[in-house]
Predict the structure.
Amino acid sequence: MIETPDEVSTTDKVSVLFVCTANVCRSPTAHGVFEDYLKRTNLEAYFNVDSAGTKAQHTGKPPEARAQKIAVKAGYDLSHLIARPLLDEDFMRFDYIIAMDSGHLNHIESMQPPTFAGTAALLMSFSNEYQGSLDIPDPYYGATNDFVVALDLVEQGCIGLLEHIVNTDLAGRLESSQIEQDSETLEELSNQD
């Protein structure tokens, strides 16, 4: 495990926002998976993580019950998450705004001010192994297995995203031995998932 400082300034943290349609299936799943990976790699102190939806119809609600059930079976906790919409101020608060599908990315880009200095991208564009569509299919109207598929894709994307951030944004802040340890932990996570 990587040793982190007791306290990292809020301005020094890398901030990541996951976005899907209503913030009740895919983006809270990515939020919970990413937080779990940060805990397992001992990198929590370096990050702020949140999730949002392109639509506000489920604002204030917890993640969809099926998403939570599949996440719990895989060892992830989504119970503390509450749906909220994507806001204009998110472009000032987040370094990475990560979409679950191309429709979400188009929505993000349509709201994105010219002053946004961060990265807006599809989660699956960070996956090193996945060769299919970069869109994570919406499981909301599907069967239980659709939530399993979405979780599998989210895990792959989150590993790639974390590797990317560690090797770019955090490279100057972490010792090379810490980056090497982190890469080994992420490889172990990738092999487990």
User: Anything to note?
Assistant: Residues 10-192 form a domain with the Rossmann fold fold (CATH 3.40.50.2300). DSSP finds six helices and four strands in the chain.
